[in-house]
Amino acid sequence: MMRPRELGGHTGAAFGRLRIAGRSLLAVGGGSVPRPNRIAGQSRLLQEPTWRRRSTARRGSMLAEVAMATVMLMIAMTLTVKVLGYVGQQRRAAEHRQRAVQEAANVMERFTADPYEEITAERARRLALSPSTRQSLPGAELVVDVADNQLGAGRSAKRIAVRLRWRGRSGEWEAPVRLTTWVEQRRPAL
To answer: Given phi > 0 = left and psi -120 to 50 = alpha, else beta, which region is 40?
Structure first.
């Protein structure tokens, strides 16, 4: 261990950091800046003021940190906006599909509420969508098919298929909503 006299001849309780050949050493010395001295052929001992060493080591680092934080914030905001846009688009698509299912069920209920003899293909072609559905589903198209089926001896039924489709945001047809039921002719009571 070096004695205070070897560090510049000063005695006292002051501490300082010394640099020897690029390495930093903690040394005890008196006064604020010890006099340069040679130790066994080593280069001169120089003590840098503490305030100067700290400011030069960190100069400009705050700017780099702020720039990185800004870039990361911009990336996060871009991803958030894209995700929110996608969620909104999916929500609208789900609302359109729900509206289409409700309309198909309403058409089917109105059509099958009539007597068996009035359920015909000609009447099915005259069915139309409600005004609110036409407004909420762009380019909506309703198709109702009626087919006669013979179930066996003395039994007959009609197969009713409702298909409702509409155009999406891109102008392409969305997957249609299909609803099918059978209406059997009632037998007279005995």
So the answer is: left
Burial class (CB in 10 A: 0-12, 13-18, 19+), 143: middle
Give me the amino acid identity at 78.
T
For the CA atoms of 26, 32, 37, 41, what is the dihedral angle to 10 degrees? Answer: 20
The arithmetic mean of pLDDT across residues 59-77, rounded, is: 91
Least Cα distance to 15 among 5, 30, 1 occurs for 30
33/47 Cα distance (integer angstroms): 6
Residue type, 168: G
pLDDT digits over 152-186, tens only?
767 788 999 999 999 988 889 999 999 999 888 87
Q: Going by C-beta distance under 8 Å and a sequence separation of 6 or more, which residues neighbour residue 64?
A: none
Instruction: Specify whether the CB–CB gap between 26 and 47 falls below 8 A.
Output: no
> Any idea of the CA torsion for 56, 61, 62, 63, to the nearest 10 degrees?
110
Q: Which residue stretches of 10-60 are H helix? A: 50-57
Residue 53 CB-density burial (10 A; 0-12 exposed, 13-18 middle, 19+ buried): middle
For the chain, which residues make up each domain, given as ranges? 4-57, 98-184
pTM for this predicted structure? 0.58
Distance (Å, rounded) from C-alpha 20 to C-alpha 23? 5
